[in-house]
Design goal:
6-stranded antiparallel beta sheet; 2 domains; PD-(D/E)XK nuclease superfamily protein; 6-stranded mixed beta sheet; alpha+beta; about 20% strand
């Protein structure tokens, strides 16, 4: 077998083939670099001190279990034994139940502390939105580069950065210090992270092929049908719209969903893999409008009250998307209620949007068009 020119390096190649949890290998590699290279350890402290007044001279422990059962990947330990820095490494794994709230509580009380998530660049915005939501925090700052930070309780800081940004900081320090071993080690780690940061196909793990994955995917489609049925039964939604008549189930590239009407606006509640992977941590998305009818600018303006929540409303080329969150730890009926309530909030903002001929003309001229960014058939 001949390796492609852009192969990730031997370390990245072997880890993705042989390790069940590449995050753990990356964490151990980062721990090794920081423990064996004073220049990189100092660079990390200086880099993070722009967000929190961390003590100098930290040393690092791997996966130290707290009293609450939380196990951060890396802990920066001060001379007095406290852990003012906790680091959690992510590639494709989701957040655990303890993240970030329990981890923030592990930081020393009444002293500066920082919880840092290191994630692939392509997942940074998605995961940042999720950790802010779980911690009930907001980030008013406009995104700048690949480092995010916000102050939490007790003056502690919740932060997130990308692997490539962090490794660039460490590599620059290693080069400046003439630490060739650290430079070489960081090159290997960067190869792994670049591979995990791409959308390249990664070797399948046996558990991914178990029946539980298939069952869950079927349950997502079931939630769509049951939520739409409930909305129609309550009078919130209609089976179709004036323009399209009856809606119904449709599927396209990386999505499956069901068309129906809200205030005579054609809508599609769908499970979307691409939106789930890139925009917000939820499989369900509500498309409001179809093929430019009503005009996306008009819909987007109408949904302004929902836009106060980060990564909730997305304006696409021919429609507007609204992320529909699922309720974790709840039974099916409660999850369906939660979906329905979110769609009811959208419905309350839509009356009067389909009121003129312009929208019909746009639609008539695009009868065979597809969804802006997902292959689609239209409503019936």
């Amino acid at each position: 077998m001949t390796m492609p020119p852009d192969a990730p390096g031997m370390f990245g190649y072997l880890v993705t083939r042989l390790a069940a949890h590449p995050e753990n290998v990356a964490t151990d590699a980062l721990h090794y670099v920081l423990s064996s290279s004073p220049a990189t350890a100092r660079a990390l402290e200086l880099h993070l001190r722009r967000a929190a007044e961390l003590p100098v001279g930290l040393h690092y422990d791997v996966q130290s279990t707290g009293e609450d059962g939380s196990i951060p990947d890396l802990a920066g330990v001060a001379e007095d034994g406290s852990t003012p820095l906790l680091v959690e490494a992510k590639f494709h794994a989701g957040l655990t139940a303890n993240q970030p709230v329990s981890y923030l509580r592990r930081l020393p009380a009444d002293r500066p502390g920082l919880l840092l998530f290191v994630v692939p660049a392509m997942r940074l915005e998605l995961l940042w939105t999720e950790v802010l939501s779980r911690a009930k925090l907001t980030d008013p700052a406009a995104p700048a580069g690949e480092f995010r930070a916000v102050t939490a309780a007790d003056g502690h800081v919740l932060a997130m950065t990308s692997w490539r940004s962090l490794l660039a900081v460490l590599a620059e320090a290693a080069v400046t210090a003439g630490d060739r071993a650290a430079v070489a080690n960081l090159d290997q780690l960067r190869g792994l992270c670049d591979r995990m940061d791409s959308q390249a196909f990664h070797p399948l793990a046996p558990e991914e092929l178990s029946g539980s994955v298939a069952v869950r995917l079927r349950q997502y489609t079931g939630l769509i049908n049951k939520a739409v049925d409930r909305l129609i039964a309550s009078g919130t939604a209609t089976p179709g719209t004036t323009r399209f008549g009856r809606g119904g189930a449709r599927a396209g590239v990386e999505w499956w969903g069901r068309f129906f009407g809200l205030s005579d606006v054609s809508c599609l509640l769908r499970m979307s893999a691409i939106r789930w992977a890139e925009d917000r941590a939820t499989p369900l998305w509500l498309q409001v409008g179809y093929n430019g009818s009503p005009p996306p600018a008009v819909v987007h303006a109408a949904l302004a009250p929902l836009q106060a929540e980060r990564s909730r409303v997305f304006r696409r080329r021919l429609f507007v998307d609204v992320a529909i969150d699922l309720l974790p730890g709840a039974e099916e009926d409660a999850v369906i209620d939660h979906i329905a309530r979110q769609i009811e909030r959208v419905t309350a903002l839509l009356p009067g949007l389909v009121t003129n001929d312009a929208s019909t003309e746009v639609l008539d001229g695009m009868a065979d068009a597809e969804l802006a960014d997902e292959d689609s058939g239209g409503p019936a």
